[in-house]
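Per reviewer request, we include the raw input and output of the structure prediction for the construct analysed in the revised manuscript.
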Amino acid sequence: MSEFKPSPAHLKRLFEHTHQALRLYYNKQKWPAIYPTLTQLAERFVQCYYTQPNAMHAHLQFYASDYGYTTNLTVNQCILVCAFCCANGYTEAFTEELVVAALSDYLCCSNEANKLARSAMLSKQESKLIKLRHQFTVTMLDSANVPQGQLQRILSRLDKYSNAITGSKAIPLYDNTSILVTLAKRIAKAITPRPHAKTFTMIQAIKSLYLGTHNEFAQLSLLALSKQINLYPGGALVNYKGQGALVLSATHNGHLLALLDNFKAVGMIKTSRRFSPQYKPIATSDKTLLYSIWFNEQMPQCQTIQPQQTEIWHAITALGKQQFLEFKAIEKTIKPYNQITQALQLAARQYNRQGQKATTLRHCLTMVGLDNAGLLCQRVLLETLISQLHHPFANDVWNKYIHINKLITTLFSLTQGEQFEQLLSPFTAAIYFILKDHSTSIMRRVKPATEEIADKGVSIAHLFGFGRLDEALFTTFIESYFKYSPSHQALLDSEILLKQTLNEQGRQIVAIKLLSIYTLGESQDLSAWQKQLLDDELKKMQWSSIEVFCDAFIEHSPICSVD
């Protein structure tokens, strides 16, 4: 993304290429090109937004007269998806996936949508195409061999979510990714002008949705969007000394304005005056206002602040680069991170039977033990990274991680708990990997353990709603950072090896996966091999049956809900 240098031509091409993409449906020979076209266009939307957010926000107020209603509507939806994702702190790659979904909303009916916007009469076939457009789009995507996943899931729910996101009844909506695209769709439709229909301002649309929805994630996202619009106020209209002006950007002590004459830019001025900005649609074909003015040298550069993860990864790598670390080396590595010292003090009690309280950092390390100290430090650092990886299901993922923690604690409550760290740490690493490399696969639901490849053990991916981890990527991840940890290698083996070849630690890890899915999932069915493995592992830890363990788990952990 750093190599991308935006220009007026890039802004202009967003409209041109969106218009062209919306017409691909009418030429069946071009269907195979639909996915690369959409992904490349989505990438450009995200690049333009992250480098020129003021320009993109201004386009939410503009109606580009050279293009039809559907093109303007779709461009607005894509910009709003970018704004929501940026405001929530999601990655550029994740944002691109949602922009593709926004581009696909009217992919197979742009002509018909334009007619409907003009209040023209539609034939029965055209009306059917509008009503079933998402089904037709999925069929089109399937014929183009577009990978099955989040895109199809969002399209299948978009109309239902659009109707249910507001209303007098609180209808549960569980797919937060679909909620984001739905909010962008609702706002875009409200602010994009069309004859014989009321056009809302951006502020009116956000406020109406916020007051009308019962969904907490939607409300939080709308609040984040409103802050994003205030931070980059491009497109707001103000009155400057009796003359209309358009806000180009905020500056350190005021605003940069474009003076307007009949909605054409006639000059620029910096001012420290305070204004009461107004938002309303501006129909224009002025190339300066639409494209070139946003790249004037007076425009301040957008500085995107990213979480600093490099130093933490250096520490994780240092802790895992050799099989045996000395206490002195561990102390030096973790010295900058206060949260590790606090975690060590809490963990130290677990590793001594007298419940003795640790004092100094060295005392903590010696009580935890050399084998566990490095793993625990890596785990706490990974938890820090996980907290920085924003995702629509971040709360759900974290609650499932806490659920695994409590399961392991209960599992070893009847025996010595020295294995706790060796079993929890690999799961922390796997969850970080899932958030980073499978962000678009994550769902709230738990996939039943019975839906599994016959010759392999159950994957941790089931806990997050999908089938399996990318084995090549996960192998590289474990080998790069946890090569000398037998427990991390055991988790890797439980994902990629045949189930009959797993060692004892690998079987323990599969048992924890099964217990997590069993206690959170809807289906309680287990295969014969899974049931036998669970019975064997539970008995080794002095549990007579899975029912007795589950009763004890509920007793020890009354609050283990999944958001």
